[in-house]
TrEMBL record:
Family annotation (PROSITE patterns): TYROSINASE_1 (PS00497), TYROSINASE_2 (PS00498)
GO terms of molecular function: copper ion binding; protein homodimerization activity; tyrosinase activity
GO cellular component entries: melanosome membrane; perinuclear region of cytoplasm
Role according to the record: This is a copper-containing oxidase that functions in the formation of pigments such as melanins and other polyphenolic compounds. Catalyzes the initial and rate limiting step in the cascade of reactions leading to melanin production from tyrosine. In addition to hydroxylating tyrosine to DOPA (3,4-dihydroxyphenylalanine), also catalyzes the oxidation of DOPA to DOPA-quinone, and possibly the oxidation of DHI (5,6-dihydroxyindole) to indole-5,6 quinone.
A biological process from GO: melanin biosynthetic process
Transmembrane residue ranges: 474-495
Protein's UniProt name: Tyrosinase
InterPro entries documented for this protein: Di-copper_centre_dom_sf, Tyrosinase/Hemocyanin, Tyrosinase_Cu-bd
EC number: 1.14.18.1
Cleaved signal peptide residues: 1-18
Subunit architecture: Forms an OPN3-dependent complex with DCT in response to blue light in melanocytes.
Originating gene: Tyr
Length: 530
């Protein structure tokens, strides 16, 4: 008994932020529409006695949304989280979490006053023990029931408007699979009616902020689960990859020798069971995914439809995306032209920025390429490649933010598809986060990417400074050398025009093959269009 209480106490100290806290799913909470659990540090709701936060009415933005979703009052995710709750904890200062028991991203320490900056690294830069530790964490998360969160297994209506709660336990890893399913699932309209053209995290401006928050929360859960306060997700840099080079047993799993759709029995993930992969079945039952195991991970990299996705993204594709100056454009959905978001997401040609519904490029290309669990939006987070892939997509978003330094106003305030306005709260997170909150540099959220880091400040001190010092000591010699140099330069002046022409011709020769390569590539695209 004592141990159980201690266990609960320990866990509630580590409480953080995400979907449906256990503490808020009683019929009492649901009927009152209140989710303001006590912070265990002082036992008061939202840690109010310690000045951490207080229970407040939720203020919803009333900015209009786009025409893509022509309904009102039919989906629990509309005006998130107002169907379930109208009061939550609002935390002050650097506190965060559904009970203000956590620190904001980028802060740590018992009073959340210490600034943190953690680095996400290329998976190939991890040592073998570091890499194996990462896989061990994944496995632990997959097999540990979340002490803090549960998932709803019915709609609000199916719960009789909260009077008969329907919630299930879920593992820490599967909680995230479920959240990704829930945010992208179809709308159940009753009878046999379904609305498919809706997604609270894809095909619209919220795509990048939503997945950014998703990864941050995932890291936070792993840190709490393992006590490894410095844990970060590694990324897979897929630029110019010719195949799935991380699909080996040492990394994310090789191919099964007998069945090309399955993982090799020697891989870390061959025994994993997937959830939330059967959208048609849920739709036909007008039910939600309830987390029941649905079989092994499916993956068959490279077996995809090549006319839709002829290749994986190149460095040139990424570079082109980064030159697009508009974050979002036009109707702000998958038909948007010259939208950085739409091009990086993969609904536009990555060499022109023009929307192209016949192709899956960039981010989408990786999903399609894996030809299995990764390829269906709702179940894709079952495959741990999802995390490494999205970490890299997020790094490209970060590069764009650093290059263009947009004001918050650049993120659309109104008329985006439902759920995607700047002030909309992101589905299905509790406590509440707005899309616009993540339209800032990752350094302000406490993380950076190893390949984007500023050059080491020690570089100047260790290399440039001694060099300048040395130069100052020998300056008379340098001056003399410069004078002699000037005479020699004058003597050589006659030669220079000849050299110049020669050089220009040389440059042209160098550039020719590059141009041809590009033209050939266009032809290839047009051909496969037919
Ligand atoms: C919140 O919901 C409860 C239960 O439906 C209701 O009684 C209360 O008036 C609502 N509060 C606000 C501020 O809307
Ligand atoms: C945190 O804040 C409390 C109350 O202000 C204070 O008593 C305590 O010493 C602080 N702890 C640290 C580690 O700063
Ligand atoms: C739930 O609430 C809706 C809207 O307020 C109402 O129409 C419906 O009858 C309620 N259902 C139940 C089972 O209470
Ligand atoms: C995390 O990193 C900090 C700074 O490098 C170090 O002081 C601390 O011991 C690390 N914590 C763990 C659990 O490794
Ligand atoms: C795998 O690719 C084939 C085409 O090569 C396609 O018909 C099939 O639907 C894909 N499977 C998945 C799960 O994406
Ligand atoms: C995007 O550009 C293409 C080609 O110029 C054009 O046909 C299409 O109508 C444009 N789409 C939108 C939504 O403006």
């Amino acid at each position: 008994m004592f141990l159980a209480v201690l266990y609960c106490l320990l866990w509630s100290f580590q409480i953080s932020s995400s979907h449906f806290p256990r503490a808020c799913v009683s019929s009492k909470n649901l009927m009152a529409k209140e989710c303001c659990p006590p912070w265990t540090g002082d036992g008061s709701p939202c840690g109010q006695l310690s000045g951490r936060g207080s229970c407040q009415d939720i203020l919803l933005s009333n900015a209009p949304t786009g025409p893509q979703f022509p309904f009102k009052g039919v989906d629990d995710r509309e005006s998130w989280p107002s169907v379930f709750y109208n009061r939550t904890c609002q935390c002050s200062g650097n506190f965060m979490g559904f009970n203000c028991g956590n620190c904001k991203f980028g802060f740590g320490g018992s009073n959340c006053t210490e600034k943190r900056l953690l680095i996400r690294r290329n998976i190939y830069d991890l040592s073998v023990p570091e890499k194996n530790k990462f896989f061990a964490y994944l496995n632990l998360a997959k097999h540990t029931i979340s002490p803090v969160y549960v998932i709803p297994i019915g709609t609000y209506g199916q719960m009789n408007n909260g009077s008969t709660p329907m919630f299930n336990d879920i593992s820490v890893y599967d909680l995230f699979v479920w959240m990704h399913y829930y945010v992208s699932r179809d709308t159940l309209l009753g009878g046999s009616e379904i609305w498919r053209d809706v997604d609270f995290a894809h095909e619209a401006p919220g795509f990048l902020p939503w997945h950014r928050l998703f990864l941050l929360l995932w890291e936070q859960e792993i840190r709490e689960l393992t006590g490894d306060e410095n844990f970060t997700i590694p990324y897979w840099d897929w630029r110019d990859a010719e195949n799935c080079d991380i699909c080996t047993d040492e990394y994310l799993g090789g191919r099964h020798p007998e069945n090309p759709n399955l993982l090799s029995p020697a891989s870390f993930f061959s025994s994993w069971q997937i959830i939330c992969s059967r959208s048609e079945e849920y739709n036909s039952r007008q039910a939600l995914c309830d987390g029941t195991p649905e079989g092994p991970l499916i993956r068959n990299p490279g077996n995809h439809d090549k006319t839709k996705t002829p290749r994986l993204p190149s460095s040139a594709d990424v570079e082109f995306c980064l030159t697009l100056t508009q974050y979002e454009a036009g109707s702000m959905d998958k038909t948007a032209n010259f939208s950085f978001r739409n091009t990086l997401e993969g609904f536009a040609n990555p060499l022109t920025g023009i929307a192209d519904s016949s192709r899956s490029t960039m981010h989408n290309a990786l999903h399609i390429y894996m030809n299995g669990t990764m390829s269906q939006v709702q179940g894709s987070a079952n495959d741990p490649i999802f995390l490494l892939h999205h970490a890299f997509v997020d790094s490209v978003f970060e590069q764009w933010l650093r290059r263009h330094r947009p004001l918050l106003e650049v993120y659309p305030e109104a008329n985006a598809p439902i759920g995607h306005n700047r002030e909309s709260y992101m589905v299905p997170f509790l406590p509440l986060y707005r899309n616009g909150d993540f339209f800032i540099s990752s350094k302000d959220l406490g993380y950076d990417y190893s390949y984007l880091q500023d050059p080491d400040p020690g570089f100047y001190r260790n290399y440039i400074e001694p060099y300048l010092e040395q130069a100052s000591r020998i300056w008379p010699w340098l001056l003399g050398a410069a004078l002699v140099g000037a005479v020699v330069a004058a003597a050589l002046a006659g030669l220079s025009s000849h050299l110049c022409c020669h050089k220009r011709r040389h440059l042209q020769e160098e550039r020719q093959p590059l141009l041809m390569e590009k033209d050939d590539y266009h032809n290839l695209l047009y051909q496969s269009h037919l």
